[in-house]
């Protein structure tokens, strides 16, 4: 039997090891490489031409969108299965629009994960069941994978991801603090982002900011 070749990409070594043991226990699939960063994941795919890449959404090096796009550039036949803790619709839509074939939560049962790997390997789109309803209700995204925001909403979002306070944003854009809060509320409604970490991660994945190597992402007001 030809086994489906899989690359596991996650910045936590313990999780990679667990996935490798689980996947290699199956007679029809085999982990052929592991990666701890986005660039490493692309290189492992380039080297192995694996059929499936199990990709953590929050990887060092590049945002998930860039990683997915570059994987397809070096190996068009590879199918990307995102494995993450993020259940916000903005992340799901961004990953799928970038070219991911599947999106599974890390809390999913192992049998469901294995089924998802087989599904994307067969050319199917697989989305964790709890997320399907979220996608049906979520706002649309633009072709680039981001929620459809006005110019001013995007400006406020970018400044928030860079750690500016509401007052600083108001001063910079020559508007009131209340207006900034209104724009932030609109961004939350359109993207599904809820916490300060969500805003920062969205900014990183969308390429709005890129912290220096080893630096912690900035925080925004809650």
What does this protein look like?
- The modification 4-aspartylphosphate is found at residue 56.
- GO terms for molecular function: DNA binding.
- Residues 142-207 form the HTH luxR-type domain.
- With 222 residues, the protein is of the alpha/beta class.
- Helices cover 49% and strands 13% of the residues.
- The protein has helices at 13-24, 38-48, 64-74, 89-98, 110-121, 129-137, 151-161, 166-173, 177-191, 196-205; strands spanning 4-9, 29-35, 52-55, 79-84, 102-105, 126-127.
- It has a 6-stranded parallel β-sheet, sandwiched between helices.
- The longest helix is centred in the last third of the chain and has 15 residues, at 177-191.
Short description:
The N and C termini lie far apart (53 Å).
Percentage of β-strand residues? 5-15%
Number of domains: 2
| CATH homology-level superfamily of the largest domain | Response regulator
Question: What's the helical proportion of residues?
Answer: 40-55%
Distance between the termini: 53 Å
- Under the CATH scheme, which class of the largest domain? Alpha Beta
The assigned structural class equals alpha/beta
- Number of DSSP helices? 10
Say what the CATH topology of the largest domain is. Answer: Rossmann fold
Radius of gyration: 18 Å
Assembly status: single chain
Task: Tell me what the CATH architecture of the largest domain is.
Answer: 3-Layer(aba) Sandwich
Q: Based on Cα principal axes, name the global outline.
A: elongated
Beta-strand segment tally:
6
Uncertain spans = 140-145, 210-222
Most strands sheet = 6 strands, parallel
Give the neighbour order of strands across the main sheet.
2-1-3-4-5-6
Return the string of H and E elements. Answer: EHEHEHEHEHEHHHHH
How confident overall, as mean pLDDT? 82
């Amino acid at each position: 039997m030809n086994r489906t070749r899989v690359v596991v990409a996650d910045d936590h070594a313990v999780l990679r090891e667990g996935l490798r043991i689980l996947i290699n226990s199956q007679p029809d699939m085999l982990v052929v490489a592991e990666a701890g960063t986005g660039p490493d994941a692309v290189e492992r795919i380039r080297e192995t031409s694996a059929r499936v890449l199990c990709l953590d959404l929050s990887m060092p090096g590049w945002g998930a969108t860039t990683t997915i796009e570059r994987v397809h550039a070096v190996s068009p036949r590879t199918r990307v299965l995102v494995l993450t803790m993020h259940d916000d619709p903005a992340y799901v839509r961004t990953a799928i629009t970038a070219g991911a074939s599947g999106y599974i939560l890390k809390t999913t049962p192992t049998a469901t994960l294995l089924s998802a790997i087989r599904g994307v390997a067969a050319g199917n789109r697989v989305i964790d069941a709890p997320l399907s309803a979220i996608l049906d209700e979520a706002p649309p995204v633009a072709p680039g994978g981001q929620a459809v925001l006005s110019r001013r909403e995007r400006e406020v979002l970018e400044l928030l991801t860079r750690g500016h306070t509401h007052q600083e944003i108001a001063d910079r854009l020559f508007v009131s603090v209340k207006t900034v809060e209104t724009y932030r509320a609109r961004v939350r409604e359109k993207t599904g982002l809820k916490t300060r970490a969500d805003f920062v991660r969205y900014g990183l994945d969308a390429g709005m900011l890129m912290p220096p190597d080893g630096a912690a992402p900035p925080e925004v007001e809650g």
